[in-house]
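As agreed, record minuted below.
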Amino acid sequence: MFSRVAIVNRGEAAMRLIHAVRDLSAETGTRIETVALYTDADRTATFVREADLAYDLGPASARPYLDLAKLERALVETKADAAWVGWGFVAEDPAFAELCEKVGVTFVGPSADAMRKLGDKIGAKLIAEEVGVPVAPWSRGEVATLEDALKAGEQIGYPLMLKATAGGGGRGIRKVSSADELADAYERTSQEALRAFGSGVVFLERLVTGARHVEVQVISDGATAWALGVRDCSVQRRNQKIIEESASPVLAPAQAAELKASAERLAVAVGYRGACTVEFLYHPGEKLFAFLEVNTRLQVEHPITEITTGTDLVKLQLHVAGGGKLEGEQPAESGHAVEARLNAEDPDRDFAPSPGRIARLALPAGPGIRVDTGVSEGDIIPADFDSMIAKIIAYGRDRDEALGRLRRAMAETTVIIEGGATNKSFVLDLLDQPEVIDASADTGWIDRVRAEGRLVTHRHSAIALAAAAIEAYQDEEEVSVQRLLSTAHGGRPQVQHDSGRPLDLKLRGVGYRVSVARAGRSRFRVGVSAGASEVHHADIRIDRFDAHSGQILVNGRRFRLVSATHGPIHLVEVDGVTHRISRDEGGVVRSPAPALVVATPLAVGDEVEANAPILVLESMKMETVLRAPFRARVRECPVSVGSQVETGAPLMRLEPLADGAEDEAAGETETVEIELPSVPDGVSAAERVERGLQDLRSLLLGFDVDPAERERLVATYLEARAELGNRPVEGELELLTVFADLSELSRNTPGGEDTVPNGAVHSPREFFHSYLQSLDVERAGVSEGFQAKLKRVLAHYGVDDLERTPELEAAVFRIFLAQQRTAADVAVVSELLRQWLTGAPPAEPLSERAGLTLEHLVEATQVRFPAVSDLARGVVFRWFAQPLLRRNRARVYAAVRTELTYLDQHPDAPDRAERIQAMITGSQPLVRLIGQRIGRPGRDHAPLLEVLTRRYYGNRRLSAVTVREAGGHRWLTAELNTPAGVLPLVTTAADIAALPGALRALGEVATEGAVADLYLRWEDQPDVDATAERLGTLLAENPPAAGVRRIVVTVAGTGGAVMHHHFTFERAGGNSAAFTEDRLIRGLHPQIAQRLQLQRLREFDLTRLPSADEEIYLFKAVAKTNPADERLIAMGQVRDLTPLREADGRLVALPALEDAVTACLDAIRNIQAQRPQNKRFDTNRIMMYVWPPTDLTTEELNQLVQRILPTSVGAGLEEVQFLARRRTDAGKLTELAVRITLDHGHGARLHVEAPSTEPVKPLDDYRLKVLRAARRGTVYPYELTGLLSGPEGTFVEHDLDDSGVLVPVDRPKGKNSAAIIAGVVTTPTERHPEGVTRVVLLGDPTKSLGALSEPECSRVIAALDLAERMRVPLEWFALSSGARISMSSGTENMDWVAAALKRIVTFTQDGGEINIVVNGINVGAQPYWNAEATMLMHTKGILVMTPDSAMVLTGKQALDFSGGVSAEDNFGIGGYDRVMGPNGQAQYWAPNLPAARQVLMAHYDHTYVVPGEAGPRKAGTNDPVDRDVSAFPHAIVGSDFRTVGEIFSAEHNPDRKKPFDIRTVMRALSDQDHPVLERWAGMADAETSAVQDVHIGGRPVCLIGIESRSVPRRGFPPTDGPDTYTAGTLFPRSSKKTARAINAASGNRPLVVLANLSGFDGSPESLRKLQLEYGAEIGRAIVNFEGPIVFCVISRYHGGAFVVFSKALNPNMTVLALEGSFASVLGGAPAAAVVFAGEVNNRTANDPRVTDLQAQVAAASGASRAALNAQLAEVQSAVRAEKVSEVAAEFDRVHSIQRAVEVGSVDAIISAAELRPRIIEAIEHGLKK
């Protein structure tokens, strides 16, 4: 046996030999090596990797497998002792057999002689004829010339087969049907054979049509030949075998035996040794055979013979080649085997080779399956060789089983070739054809039926198109995701996602248009159309198993899916059927930048020449002309003039035109019917509800839903929901939760949890913006509260944590899209809530969750979407509060009815008074009960009349209560004790029909001056006005006695009525005058109206409106003098003031009072919800009367306000008033009014005062302006004056006199003519009882949004002049839309703006202070003014921003229109959180205007200088001057220090290198009884400098501390900068902050610097960001500083910091240093490593440890020397590090802080205990200079 076999082949053939050799080695125990001969195309192929040895034949293009010289060299150099050729290449080349013999290598195959005899098709035919094998008519030899061929053709007759004698594998063979075809084919066939096989000899043979191709497999040892089996290879395409089987299904056993015998005779006749195949044509009809040829090699399809005979033909080849004999019994056939060839070829492109890299290879297995392959996943199928991937062989007991197994195996096979295709789908189609199943297919069958259009399957084509479109959509979606993330990384998140644009796809030459919308994580809505056909829609779900395989669910039907994309080509396999789909994006012209389309000169259908204009864009005021890249026709133009487009947006689609194409009509393309699985019929309502919930959830989560579809989705869902009973389901709670969570994440106002450790406050929207930049919560620096919100939202997308993954990126993308359309989604949520309001409440299991969900929704939407929160509160009331109220009401009514029934039966009961008192104290109204009792026999009305009378008139003030009968009615009389005397009362109850009699009887019971209350039952009561008119008529017709002065008629509601009406009639004159109705209090009992101060509404017409609670009186009030003034007034009474308190007595709630307020709010909201959003009332009031006396403190009342406020959002409240009573110290009850006023400028304010009797005034012109400003989200300026002055201060308005000077004016508020108001405000404070005086400028948004022109600018200039004369600051509440733009003014306004700008510059350069509060949007000129006033190095003033403010040069709308770069809104362009706070231009942030005012006053507390005084006044302090700061706690997590003293102790911090918190040290130093005001707290990248205004020893001081612990950087730091901001280092932004702080304090207050300052960062990033400039600014600021400077070294002081803070810069500087601190030009370590590097190296070289080793190295040799050298390197490194530390320590000892004192750099060294007293001493000393 051989020891080394060379494989002269590749791929699957090579692997076949390797497997056989391995089997032999395993069987025999003898090692046999294989040698792979390979080309460059197969360098990493499987067979090369699997072979024992490999030999490179060179480039495949040189065809080395046919180059005998190269093969000879390979055989010799590899020392092979055998060569196996398999099939193809030189397998049938006798020259190669001879070459092997020449070099002493055994050729595993026949001898060269036998090969020539049988391999030559001509010779083989001649031999076959000799041994009696039937041969079809043929040329009986070579046709050497065309003339010979034509002559032979005439003799044989057409059709013919032209064959190459050396051909094979379907090559070198052509069918010719005529002489003309023969003439054409002769040269081509000859040349093809010459190129492929090295021989161009051809012959002719009669074509046997309708024949079967059968062949006999022979193995022979030269003397004995075994014909092992007969194969049928009839299923061919163009003579290329595709499906082979054994045995032949068309041959009888006798026929098979005859063929085998003839084949054996043929082999023996030539002494054949090896494997060969004898091929025949068989005509089933004639049962005739015709010999074709002998293949003197192993055939590709040999495995089916192996599997049916149990042999291994390759092992047999090796056996006989090694001299072995065929001994024993010849193997017999058993069962049936079928083989299919899996090739890399594309049936849709006429089976063109389709090479490429195998991206996925999953081959089948299972019973009866064998797979022969030569490739693995990742291999490349080269274009240089055949396209074979694998042979799939199936074996069965019979043919049916074998075919079934082959179908299964092929279906289970997955092959994905990048950019390529396979014939898998074609093979599967073949296996299902009837002709294959019944074995009737002949050799020409495939070619015939393909010509007829068969075997081109369109099955599942629409599904494949949908899958391809989804993949294309996902590709575009990924681009959109990455664009969002990349733009967000740059600080401006943008998204382009057009889900509605259809994709144009092509499949088998037919064009389709497919639209895709993502409806969920794996759900899609797809529409497919072809040409003008209708669009076929499908709901699709794709479940991916991996990148290529998965399942696709189409309209509920499931399919297997395999897909791959390569460029614009999609290969999609659906249930085994493969479709090659191409995507056409050519001709799309996209926008090069954000722009405005200003011209579209072409229309769809127009033709345009190359380079001609097609579109004109304008971007940043510049026009860009886009030109046609080629000659084309306009196919689509989705934009028009005026369209705003983003970068990359599609503008036009062009169809290329060839020359002359304009005259050619487009060819008609055959379309294919689109078949998609139909939607299942009979879908249940529950399933439709579930589907609807999925769709609505996807809509809210930002998935693709056409806006036009939104209404349809909601309507469809509600229709299905109605079928299930309109009861809330669990999925609806999820919808509301999704909306609430997204709303919270996009909220633009901060909440209590939105504070980060440095104290800065950010809104969730800004946190999300920061998070988008890196998708890293730590880098973004977001709060834990925001992280919790983010996690909740991500969970809705199936993302469980914050680790960055593709799933998280996709979720963030959808969140961003959802945020963009949240306002539109309000309609969906609102409609659902409306359904909840009108439908049944949820079942018990959902009830609690529904309540929690609604509370969450209210909290999340009450600011941004008040309409939603109003609806949610309405649902809460209806589902939870209303049933509770009803139960309580029912319980109370049942108790009252029990009492009344008892008293009906026992009118003289001894406990009658107690029972009546119990009814009086009940919490429910009782008028309804008397209405129900009137007219019912056996009912005594007296007890209930007494209860009602005592309730209305006061229980304790009634006396002489008696019951009388008169006129058939039972009357109750009583006397009311009033300060004016005794008032007689009479009351009765009657039906409306009995009212005349009661009126007449009234004279019998009433005394002089009596007041009568009549309760009526009135069935079919008319409307209110008609009722009043009828009652007036009855009074006129039945006039009561003259002594009655007032009659109150109460028409009691009964049954289902929710409201009763009170009508009050009084005599207009004397006792004889007629009664007239008091229209003002209609609807209220006069006593209730009196308590609720209804008389204060006398300037309004009131209309009673229905309310859900009959104790709540809701009126629509319309001002008599101004019908445009409409408002709602809700009134009620509080009968119980029992507080809910904690165990320690702290107030928790006042349930009854809060319930009453809630009821009023619900009544108001119910009316508001019925009005359009922009037409809702916004001056509504709640007026409550509180019966029990109150002892609540002011603090507890404030607590009550804070509890009520959130519930009032969106109700349009102007005021809530409680009329109550409180006992004085003497025990006397006095009335008081507790008012909560809600004002846009002041927020909620609490007033406790005596009740007012002044009428509520209708809106006047001033109040209308206030409201107009509030509706715009701004504050009317005059509303700020009281806030600024405080309760005891003053505001004097000023205006220009004739000379242009500001002078005081005395005029009503709101009479300003300019859009800016000027004045002088004075605010008394503890330190300045005479007042802190400022000149004030207030922007007026009601005048063209504060637009600026001459009137405004001249007042700005005059205000600055006035502030300069008064020597006070200018305080500016800036609100302006920029320079005025109108048809009558233009550039002159800009000149005026510039004049004001100049005055600001001169004012601030002269030391003037301007403090600005930005509230609202400042545009254009105003931001420039703000910058000049507060943002430059020399300015002293501050700028405060609120959440509703922004400073923009150009507003978002204008930016978008001009094609400029903008953000999602003006706050994104110039708000505090994203821009102005981080860049330090806004120095403070305040949540609202009152807080901004507090910031201003805190600033003045440190900086205000009374005119004529030298500086800010010293404050009183109880903090001792000599306090030791050492004991101050250092409570920083993870710190080594517990106190400040430990930071500066030699024991805990000997080298002063441990990190500590500088703000703790600063706080320890400053006065403990004065608050700290930190400036620039939100300035990004400036954290290493802390700037605070503090008091030290009572003196206002600017205190600067250098952060002494590392500060993490946000986002991704640049590669040329540090990863963190290191301790004790100034970076560019912190240097800038420090310089500005020093300048701001100069000439005003002392400067104290606590320095742990190693120097300035010198990284490339810092230098690029102006480190040198800002560092130099510090030096300039120190030089120019006016006032004392105390610079205290608390740790280290080195480098450039020494220069800019040196006492040489300013004579009024004191430099102190704490004991143990360091001061030098350079730190010891860097000095040793750089400056004294030579000394370090010298000491290292002389160290004994180094010199000893060096001596050993010199004496050693070889391996020991190398080891010693390695040891020496380690020792040198360790010793050098030691010497660096040694030199550093020496340097630090020399350049100690003591040396700095000696040379005068430092004034004194102090202990930590002396830090505060010595600094105070230095400050006081400096102030005396």
